[in-house]
Amino acid sequence: MKNQVLLFLLAISFQIAAQQNTVTGVVTDSDNAPLPGVNVMVKETTKGTQTDFDGQYSVVAYQGQTLIFSYIGFKSKEVKIGVNKTINVQLEESSAALEEVVVVGYGTSRQNRATGYAIQSVASPAQIKRRKQKAYHQSIAHALQGNAAGVQVAEEVSFMKIRGKASIKAGNEPLYIVDGTPIRKQNNTVIAQLDPSKIDKINFYKGAKARSLFGSSAKNGCIVITTKQGNYQIQNDEKYAEITENQFEHVSLSPLSTFSIDVDKASYSNIRRMINNGQQIPVDAVKVEEMINYFNYSYPQPKEHPFSINTEVVQTPWNKDTQLVRIGLQGKTYQNEELPASNLTFLIDVSGSMGSANKLPLLKSAFKLLVNQLREKDKVSIVVYAGAAGVVLEPTRGDKKMEITKALENLHSGGSTAGGAGIELAYKLASKNFIKNGNNRVILATDGDFNVGPSSDKDMVKLIEEKRKSGVFLSVLGFGMGNYKDSKMEKLADKGNGNHAYIDTMQEAQKIFGQEFGGTLYTIAKDVKIQVEFNPSVVGAYRLIGYENRMLADEDFIDDTKDAGELGSGHTVTALYEIVPKGTESPFVKPVHDLKYTSNTTTGGTTELLTVKFRYKKPDGDTSTEITKTVKNALDQISPDFSFAASVALFGLHLRKSQFTNNSELEDVVQLAGAGLENDNQGYRAEFIRLVKSHANSL
To answer: Taking the alpha carbons of 368, 372, 373, 378 in that order, is the dihedral positive or negative?
Structure first.
């Protein structure tokens, strides 16, 4: 009995002695920078602690026990305690970063109310008092403190400091992504727009991880913020490609004008949205050809080729010294039941930037209109992307409308925007389910704000150019405002053998997916190019109105490797030239010296004004067919259709603040449009007149 008691007392004494040992050390990352807030736990016990701002920790444990070091964004590490009571640990970053989320909850203590967040406090009362006086950006910094590796708060000055970096100054700031929307502005500008009480989650990425996930824009780190509403918007961050307006060209110097057709209509509906909202219209948002082509014109149906060719020449309504030439194409119209089987892949952006009512909710309602027109022989797949991409609906027959609609209704927004990954997956799925002689198409719906992986315009264009070789076409649908990226979406549609539309209302969705279903989804001719040769005997100079982003080199016309626009079922395309007759002086045409070797006569003499040539390929073809049409040198009486097209062009010139409006007024636009109100069953032309008047009244 005495021996048992003795053994028990010895065991107790050894345990007490062991408890006297305190293990200390420093936890760092791969750059030897200290990691604050690392969890240090004694394995198989409830004992533990966390590192302070210098990465230091202290914990009481037995010799032979194991310490577990864990931290969000880093691989956990286990170290067995030996004789040495100082254990320094270096943690390795984890590659599984997309799933990392730091949840910042609200607290109830006075200290938590001071910052608005439940954070780990390692500050003195005096420091806490000073923190209460910080601006919004200081509150966000506090939210990160102790939860996001590498972010520290400077107590005496108002900036955040990223470990290993200098104070954040212009050009040195991290990339912010708020609800999937990238912000590349100064820190104070960014944070001034954020109400800390509305922030739900914050994630911080640094170093190579940040660059691999978010590209070169995150070279100084990336702070990902999710708000409770998930619909934060940047004001005035829309992007439009720069447009340099076409000038008059001397026929003697440049007798050929070559361009690709454009059936995109996004510019008009986008401008309509701005006018209705009382917004300033950026000049580069105005693409005159897209405004003109938003409307349908009563061109006759084709007979031999996929489209008919129509021309008209009148005196320019706003300039008595020039003439206006209209060149119009009418694509063959097919009824829905006549269209081939469709293999459609919906590629839907569900990132945080899509959370507002005019984005994902409108998108889902719009796509339901499309689903209602699908047939049994059609099939639909749905791919979504945010921080990563995934398939939410495998190929499903078009008659299973409830199943497709349910998949749409279950979509919710959140996260960053991995557009490149989504495109890769969508094309892979479309190619896997390819229908020979069918309509194989990816329909991308987004605000265009890609920020993960390949995201620059150049990167995305390169990706789409590679994917179009699969024979899968692309339609791009834009939604929303505030951070709408028109320039990127236009390029994607152009390079993806597709079209680009902007949906601002359900009325516009009905137009695109209802009235123009075939044109939106079914291509009847691809790589359609136009080349106009002017007769130098009768034309002194010419100017193509619009199409600045569609111009081609003259030699590209006969080069079948050069990409051009696509024409859909029932689509109309209209192009307008303003020409200066030979011998007519114009303030916009500077004289040049006569050229010795240039002939001023052609085989048409003075009876021909111009010759227009068209080249196109069949949707599955690689060789072009050419069509030629000669236009006589004679003025026509302006038709109602031409009058309306001219009014839209003139309105576009006014919005662009063009030098070629010739002192015309917006009232002239209204009068021209009023003379063209025929064939307005849907009321779009009448709406245009109301829009012009509304804009005029706002000036």
So the answer is: positive
